[in-house]
Write a structure and sequence with these properties.
The chain has a 3-stranded antiparallel β-sheet, with no helix packed on it. A two-stranded antiparallel sheet has the order 4-5. α1 packs antiparallel against α2, α2 crosses α4 and α7 runs antiparallel to α9. About 50% of the residues lie in helices and about 5% in strands. The protein folds into 2 domains: about 110 residues, Orthogonal Bundle (DNA polymerase, domain 1), CATH 1.10.150; about 160 residues, Intergrase catalytic core (hpI Integrase, Chain A). The protein has about 325 residues and is mainly alpha-helical. The protein is globular, with a radius of gyration of 23 Å.
Length: about 325
C-alpha cells in the first residue's frame, strides 16, 4: 500500500462514486452501475478486503474469474460489469483510494458484434398476438396502453412513464416527449431525446379511452397528470417492467406454453416470478423488436433513428435484428430482381 493513499472501505468508495455520477447519467444507468459494483463489494467482503488501498492487479484478475465462473455470465454481461469496474477504479484513483493506472489492470473480454447484440427481442407475431388479446379482453386497460405505446412507437420505458396527459395532441394525433429531470421523469439522452412522436388514430383512441375509463384520476408529487397511474400516483419503472413481463408470456395471451411446462404448476405464472419464463420479454426487448419490425416494413433507417431516439450506428449494432437473408430480400424487392 502506498503512503500517498487514503484508506476507504469498498462500499464507502462505491457510495462516493454513485454520488459523483448522479448528475452525469440517467437514474437507470446509475442503478445499473450500483448493481454491478455491489458484486465487487460483496466479493471484497468474502475475500476480507476492507480497504480499497489494498486492491491489487491480482485481486482484479481473481474477481474477473469469480464473476465469469461463479455467476456463469455471458461474455457481453461480463464485459459490461468489468467496464463499470474500470470506470469506478478511475474515480477511486482521483480520490487517492487506489494507485493511478490500477484500472488498466482490469482485462476486458473480447466480445464479437454478434455477441453484443441481444437475441431476446420481441418478435412481431408475438407482439401482435398479445395486442389482439388485449384489444379483445383488456381493451383500454393500463396494460393495453403500455404494450401498445411501447410497440407502436419503440420508445423507452422511461419515456413512456414520463408522459403526461397534457403532452398529447389529440387532434394531430401525436405526443411530445419532454426531459424533466427535476420532476423525476428524465429522458435517456436528456434534451436530445425530446421530440414529437406521431400516433395512429387507433393508438390515440385507446389512450383516450383509458384516460376516460380505468385510469386512476390522480396527480404525481409535482401536480402533473401522468398517463400511466396507480392509486399512489405515477406508475413506477417496476410497474411498467412487470406489466411487460406479464403480457409477453405466451400462456397469458392464450398461446399455450412453448416450453412444455405444466402451466398450473409453473412458477412463472406467479407475479414475483414472471421474468423467469424463458419467453417473457423486458421493455428493452419490446423496443428492439419494434425497431426491427419497422425496418422489416421498409421504414427508412433515418426515420426509425429519429422516431425512436437511436443513432444509426447504435441501431445497426444493437437493435437491427434482421437476418442477412431478410436484408437481401428487402434489397431484392427494391431492385425489382
Amino acid at each position: 500500500m502506498s503512503d500517498d493513499l487514503e484508506p476507504i472501505a469498498p462500499e464507502a468508495a462505491v457510495d462516493l462514486y454513485i454520488d459523483h455520477r448522479r448528475d452525469e447519467v440517467s437514474d437507470e444507468t446509475l442503478q445499473s452501475h450500483r448493481y454491478r459494483l455491489k458484486q465487487f463489494v460483496l466479493w471484497c467482503e468474502e475475500e476480507g478486503i476492507t480497504n480499497m488501498n489494498d486492491v491489487s492487479g491480482r485481486d482484479l484478475h481473481a474477481f474477473r474469474v469469480h464473476r465469469r465462473e461463479d455467476a456463469d455470465l455471458e461474455l457481453v454481461s461480463l464485459q459490461g460489469q468489468l467496464s463499470t469496474l474500470r470506470v469506478f477504479l478511475g474515480f477511486c484513483a482521483s480520490i487517492d483510494a487506489v494507485p493511478e493506472g490500477l484500472r488498466n489492470k482490469v482485462m476486458l473480454p473480447t466480445v464479437s458484434d454478434s455477441e453484443q447484440a441481444s437475441k431476446t427481442n420481441l418478435e412481431p407475431d408475438r407482439a401482435e398476438a398479445a395486442l389482439d388479446y388485449l384489444e379483445r379482453y383488456h381493451y383500454a386497460s393500463r396494460n393495453h396502453v403500455i404494450l401498445l405505446l411501447l410497440w407502436r412507437t419503440g420508445m423507452r420505458s422511461g419515456a413512456l412513464r414520463s408522459l403526461d396527459l397534457d403532452d398529447f395532441d389529440w387532434d394531430e394525433p401525436a405526443v411530445e416527449l419532454v426531459h424533466r429531470p427535476e420532476e423525476d421523469t428524465p429522458l435517456k439522452n436528456a434534451e436530445n431525446s425530446q421530440r414529437w412522436v406521431a400516433l395512429s388514430e387507433h393508438v390515440a383512441r385507446v389512450v383516450k379511452d383509458y384516460r376516460d375509463g380505468p385510469r386512476e384520476d390522480v396527480t404525481d408529487d409535482y401536480g402533473r397528470r401522468p398517463v400511466l397511474t396507480t392509486s399512489q400516483g405515477r406508475a413506477s419503472r417496476s410497474t411498467v417492467r412487470n406489466s411487460v413481463y406479464l403480457m409477453t408470456r405466451p400462456c397469458w395471451y392464450g398461446d399455450g406454453c412453448p416450453h412444455d411446462r405444466d402451466i398450473g404448476e409453473c412458477e412463472a405464472t406467479e407475479r414475483a416470478y414472471m421474468s423467469k419464463c424463458p419467453s417473457s420479454r423486458s421493455p428493452h426487448d419490446v423496443r428492439s423488436g419494434a425497431i426491427t419490425a419497422h425496418l422489416l416494413e421498409d421504414v427508412p433507417v433515418e426515420i426509425v433513428s429519429d422516431r425512436m431516439d437511436v443513432t444509426q450506428d447504435v441501431l445497426d449494432k444493437h437493435y437491427d435484428r434482421r437476418s442477412e437473408r431478410e436484408k437481401m430480400n428487402q434489397r431484392r424487392d427494391h431492385l425489382g430482381i
